[in-house]
Amino acid sequence: MSSRTNISCLQEAKRVAIFGGTHGNEMSGITLVNMWIQNSAEIERNGLVVKPFISNPRAVEKCTRYIDTDLNRAFTPENLSAPDVEGLPYEVQRAKEINRMFGPKGSSDAYDAIFDLHNTTSNMGSTLILESSTDLFNLQMVHYIKKAMVPHTCSVLLNEHPQLKYSTTRSVAKHPIGLEVGPQPQGVLRSNVFESMRTILKHALDFIELFNSGVEFPPCTVDVFRVQERMDYPRDTNGNITAMVHPHLQDCDWEPLNRGDPMFLTFDGRTVLYEGANTVYPTFINEAAYYEKQQAFMTTCREILAAYAIRKACK
Ligand SMILES: CC(=O)N[C@@H](CC(=O)O)C(=O)O
Ligand SMILES: [Zn+2]
């Protein structure tokens, strides 16, 4: 990087994958990817290899989140280096296959970018998920997408939390990007959600094409929501939930939650208040897939990230 001009010269992004069906019951990504496998005209860009790919075909076939274990938690160093023995959980086998095809994770042979398409039952709207606050390529891309989406909003969730971060399918790529669009029930297609996801992908691929063509992207800032804490439902001693998300919180993803605001409503009608000292921005509120993960919602804090200018490295 030249310090005088503060332009970072980054490697060209030539190989890009679009994953659908990492969770087999999230229908927008599955449908888009199957559509693009049939006809890829819409996702083709100059000088780019774009591969649409169903990441968990057995779960898609059964329309379930996973067969043995959550694929989007399976890309750990232990799993990826496990010997190929019989009897491995299906998703661990699949993680190893995906790592061979699109990785190896952390190596120079890995795909440049992976877009992993997800749907949520929460009212999050269009959300991009980042795993690093220092990936300039992704920050610039997210900035480009947010601008291109105006007047529609596109939120950015940053998960760098040392305990809450997980080993995602997309983490195999040099630049991992999650797309999370909702609300959409599991196993259901909603046209508005489908179209939003499609539009985000279009802008993302446009960005990469422009970057590869040599366009310089000036310094920018990106508003993000940084993952802070996991909030579980109130539970009894058997682990069964004893309360629901409070109606005042339900569907209020990304809206401030202040000390004293209602959070849960117990089955016997009592309101449980939020008692944290600081204002937080809840997200993934009442996500269906998170009951088994002991999570009613996630709290985030707002942050503004700055990104240097970037352009493609000159050879
Ligand atoms: C609802 C859902 O599946 N959300 C994704 C979020 C992500 O891709 O990071 C997950 O928990 O794996
Ligand atoms: Zn998902």
TrEMBL record:
Q: What is its main location?
A: cytoplasm
Cofactor(s) of this protein: Zn(2+)
- Determine if Secreted is one of this entry's keywords: no
Give the residues the record marks as binding N-acetyl-L-aspartate. R65, E180, Y290
The cellular location(s) given in this protein's UniProt record come to: Cytoplasm; Nucleus
Annotated ranges, domain Succinylglutamate desuccinylase/Aspartoacylase catalytic: 13-208
Q: Which UniProt keywords apply?
A: Cytoplasm, Hydrolase, Metal-binding, Nucleus, Zinc
Q: Tell me the residue numbers annotated for binding Zn(2+).
A: H23, E26, H118
Limits of the AstE/AspA barrel-sandwich hybrid domain: 221-300
Q: Which CDD domains match?
A: M14_ASPA
Under the heading Pfam families, the entry gives: AstE_AspA_cat, AstE_AspA_hybrid
Q: Where is substrate annotated to bind?
A: N72, R73, Y166, S167, T168, T169, R170
Q: Where is the active site?
A: E180
Q: Write down the EC number.
A: 3.5.1.15
Q: How is the cofactor bound?
A: Binds 1 zinc ion per subunit.
Instruction: Cite the SUPFAM superfamilies for this sequence.
Output: Zn-dependent exopeptidases
- Family to which this protein belongs: Belongs to the AspA/AstE family. Aspartoacylase subfamily.
Which protein are we looking at?
Aspartoacylase
Per the UniProt record, the source organism is Sinocyclocheilus grahami (Dianchi golden-line fish)
Gene that encodes the chain = aspa
